[in-house]
Every structure is written in structure tokens, then in C-alpha cells.
Amino acid sequence: MIAMRTILCPVDFSDATARQAALAANLSRLFGARFVLHHNLAGLAPGAGVGWMWSADRPFTSKEAVQERLESLAHATAPGLDVAVSVTQGPAAMAVLGVCDSCNADLVVLSTHNAPIEEHTSLTEQVLERANRSVLALHDACIEPGALCFDLSSGHRQVTLVPTNLSPTAQDAVDFAFELARTLPLDLHLLHVMPRGHKAALQEHMADADRALRALIPADLTGSTQVHVCEGDPIDGITQAATDLHAACIVMGEHTRAPIRRWLSRDTSQGVLHKAPCPVWYVPGQRAA
Q1: 114 and 174: one domain?
Q2: Looking at the whole model, is its pTM more than 0.90?
Q3: What is the sign, positive or negative, of the torsion defined by CA atoms of 177, 179, 182, 183?
Q4: Cys staple from 85: which of 70, 77, 269, 286, with CB 3.0 to 4.6 Å?
């Protein structure tokens, strides 16, 4: 069972903030988790693209004014919840990591603004590499046509795509998705994308991958889990599957832990984050830590 005791939501007061906070509040209710709203007062140059901590139309203001705005946001998006607010000042990444540590967050809900990755070091990357916490990354509403929301009373089930390369490190994210499906109303779709190859050998390998995916499914989730195997580029395969399935969320492993290889630079995770039509829930690999 997933222990979700504290959910941290760093916001920037952009147009995406209300949607981001509402989702974090929704998850806090479902898991009975403490909900922490955070804003960092950091003077970043326009064009820095760090959407989590900076908004072009927001003037720099006092900590008291920001705290009042956070409390207003909590009242609007998380009625009935006991929400803690945190205001910090300084480098954005260090501030979020510090609040992560101080509140011992199990999940960080972030909102991306589709900035070119060359312009900044991803805060998402730093939280994963240095804090070893799950991160749920949302895009702007214009990129995500549907709203991710878990409503246990409505009976509505959310389609969740779970890509895996069938490695031991990827298994952590798969196991996490299975546990989510035992708590939230999810229909899981396991996906393995194979590199293109000789047709005869590829068909055999695809059949092996299909069997391997089916072997992962726990007995209690066979009725709500499907498997898919395709060939091609992993990024294109994952994002196309998410589009075709009208996925509400992608759950995947972060894949890279070594600091010399930036997690959001040239690998599958970066491509999926920037091309996905839905939120991406990244799960740090315990086996690789």
C-alpha cells in the first residue's frame, strides 16, 4: 500500500496554478495526506522559463502578501482541508528541495510551462535526483485536453499509461502504478516499445515482451489492466499511445540517476515530459538509488 503522508505543491501564481493546486488537493483528500502549498520569492530573469517559481505578470512582493495569497488559494482549491503554507526566498531549486526535506514530502506536484530545456536546469530533475521523491508534472491546459481528477464517488475510471522497458529499475514504477490502481479508479495500460529490427525476429521478440508484460499483472488487477507492445522510437511510441488511449496520466520511472547524465537532457523521460498530452507521474527507482 502506498504511504502518501505529505503532498507538496510549489506554485507560481500563473494561469496553471489553480488547476495544479486542485489536483494536489484532490490527491491529499484521497490519501488522507497533509497538503503543503509553497511559493518561493526568487528574482529570475524573464526568459528563464522556470515556470514553477516565476510568472511574468507577477511583481515581486512581500512574504506576508504571498502568504495571504497562498491562504486564499488554499481556501478556493482545497476547502475543508487543513493546508500548510510555506513561503521561502532564494534559488528556486534549493528552496523546493529544502521544503521537501522539512515537510518530508512523498509527492511533489509541479506545473511545467513548456520552456526549452536548454534555458534552465529542470527543477523536476533536481527533485528526483537529489530528493528521491515522486513528481507529478502537469502541463499547461492548452496541452492537456482533459483534466486529471480522481473521483471515487462517480465511478469514472482514469486511463493510465505505464511504459516499461522491462528492466529492474523500471519495475519500481510498474509496482507503484499497481498500488495506485488499488487506491484510485484507474484502468492501467502497460506498454513496451521495442526498437525496429528484422521482421521475423521482431515478431518473436514482441511475443516474448507481451508474455513478460502479462506476467507482471497481479491477479487482482487482471480485469483492469491491458498490455501493448509496439516498435519504434520510445518517446514517439509512449506519447502516441497516450494520445490514442486518451490517457489521463502516464506513470513511468525516471531511468537515470547518475549526475553526469542529466535526467531531462537526452533520454526518454525528457522527451515524454515535453511531448505528452497528459500529466506525467515520475517514480524514482529504488533499485537504482
Answers
A1: no
A2: no
A3: negative
A4: 70
Lookup result for grid cell 493546486: 21
Sign of CA dihedral 133, 139, 145, 151: positive
The residue assigned the cell 476547502 is 79
Domain that holds residue 178: 158-288
pLDDT tens digit sequence for 112-161: 765 544 434 467 667 766 767 889 988 876 666 666 777 766 678 889 99
> C-alpha angle 234/160/182, rounded to 5°?
130
- Whole-angstrom Cα distance, residue 201 to residue 251? 29
Enter the C-alpha cell of residue 75: 481556501
For β-strands 134-138 and 280-283, DSSP reports them as antiparallel
In a domain, 103, yes or no: yes
User: What's the rounded Cα separation, in Å, for the pair 53 and 230?
Assistant: 38
Query: Is residue 83 assigned to a domain?
Result: yes
> How crowded is the C-beta side of 252, counted as CA atoms within 13 Å?
29
